[in-house]
Amino acid sequence: MIFFKRIALFLTGIDIYLFKTWYGFHFYWQSDPLFDVINHHRKNNTIREYGIIIFGLWLYTKIDNQRG
Fold first, then answer.
1. When you count CB atoms within 10 A of the terminal residue's CB, does the N or C end of the chain come out lower?
2. Phi then psi for 26, rounded to 5 degrees?
3. pLDDT by residue (tens digit) across 16-65?
4. Whole domain around residue 33: which residue ranges?
5. CA 22, CA 49: separation in Å to the nearest integer?
6. SS3 category, 12
7. How many domains does the chain have?
8. Residue 64 in contact with residue 6, Cβ under 8 Å?
9. Whole-number Cα distances in Å, 62 to 2, 26, 46
10. Burial 26-46 (b: 16+ CB within 10 A, else e)
11. The pTM is what?
């Protein structure tokens, strides 16, 4: 179960890091040109990105609750 929890955290972390979907991270990486390019191409996909993050966090809590 710990393995699946690590996968959920890993996927969620990648999504936050690459696509800056959380506002706090967005302001931290505002000046990075690489992330500006990525963000420019993905401005209209925020709903899908939030869905991925919510699914990752939901999976994390579900596995955590099963462990007890």
1. C
2. -60, -45
3. 555 555 544 444 445 555 555 555 555 555 666 677 777 878 877 877 77
4. 2-67
5. 10
6. helix
7. 1
8. no
9. 12, 28, 24
10. eeeeeeeeebeeebeeeeeee
11. 0.32
